[in-house]
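Hi V.,

Quick status before I head out on leave. The structure for the redesign project is tokenized and pasted below; the design run finished overnight.
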């Protein structure tokens, strides 16, 4: 099945604001909900509603965390550090400083929690991170034109009908010649094709609605910046067209997903793609329905 939504990042939980309290099931424990919904939570529900239930409703601790997820978050943190230095008016950080951020990000997950694939050790992944961050420093994406307005900027607002606020975290927001540019950084096993970028584009299109609410009247441009994890690292940009009809479709699908969440129908969606990195495999096996 092709998902509407892109591969999610670690994300905040789904929730309902007091103003939207009527959206809650009567038996939804209020201390377990927040007053927003994230794109990644919606995406997770689409991929496997039971995994969504374990994470956001039962709030089970993860049995393990895939090394690929830990790696992606740590790379993200290193890149965030780079742009934070630029925003502060400082010189770009040296590779060692970026690697230190990578390692700090990695160490946020307890070592015994991390599930490595058979083909890669921590050392292998550190070497890969070194190559990827060096390639990032050498590429023009590390020296973006214009003024940086925000890094990991949180925006939220009501963009999905009959659902709580959507909460977005923008990797990089800058202004170039009167246009706001939203950049979302991804790591991927291989370079993205145009089709892969198109499949992931709904996330950014929804985010563009939040940017419009915050900066009305300004032109907006959306892009993915993808760092491949191949032996020779490739960094590509993919522009995302802001298409009104597509945005409307995405909003309606998100609304339906939210309605399904409210209905609380959870069931396993077993597939190698879903289950290989699932942190709740034991809970799933023990689930009695
Ligand atoms: S193991 Fe697979 S089916 Fe079970 S909860 Fe995880 S992703 Fe869903």
């Amino acid at each position: 099945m092709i998902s509407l939504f892109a591969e999610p990042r670690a994300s905040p939980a789904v929730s309902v604001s007091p103003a939207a309290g009527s959206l809650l099931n009567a038996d939804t424990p209020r201390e377990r909900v927040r007053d927003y919904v994230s794109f990644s939570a919606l995406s997770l529900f689409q991929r496997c509603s039971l995994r969504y239930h374990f994470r956001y409703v039962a709030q089970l601790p993860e049995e393990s965390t895939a090394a690929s997820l830990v790696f992606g978050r740590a790379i993200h943190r290193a890149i965030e550090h780079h742009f934070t230095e630029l925003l502060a008016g400082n010189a770009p950080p040296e590779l060692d400083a970026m690697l230190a951020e990578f390692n700090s990000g990695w160490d946020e997950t307890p070592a015994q929690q991390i599930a490595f694939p058979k083909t890669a050790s921590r050392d292998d992944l550190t070497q890969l991170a070194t190559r990827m961050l060096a390639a990032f420093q050498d590429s023009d994406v590390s020296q973006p034109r214009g003024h940086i307005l925000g890094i990991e900027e949180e925006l939220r607002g009501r963009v999905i009908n009959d659902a709580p606020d959507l909460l977005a975290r923008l990797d990089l927001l800058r202004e170039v010649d009167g246009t706001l540019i939203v950049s979302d950084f991804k790591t991927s096993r291989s370079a993205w094709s145009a089709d892969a970028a198109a499949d992931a584009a709904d996330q950014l299109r929804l985010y563009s609605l939040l940017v419009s609410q915050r900066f009305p009247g300004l032109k907006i441009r959306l892009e993915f910046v993808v760092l491949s994890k191949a032996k020779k690292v490739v960094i590509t940009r993919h522009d995302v067209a802001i298409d009104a009809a597509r945005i409307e479709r995405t909003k309606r699908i998100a609304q339906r997903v939210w309605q399904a969440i409210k209905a609380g129908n959870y069931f396993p969606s077993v597939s190698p793609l879903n289950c290989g990195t699932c942190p709740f495999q034991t809970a799933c096996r023990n689930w009695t329905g």
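Above is the designed sequence. Residues 67-87 form the longest helix (21 residues).

G. will cover questions while I'm gone.

Best,
W.
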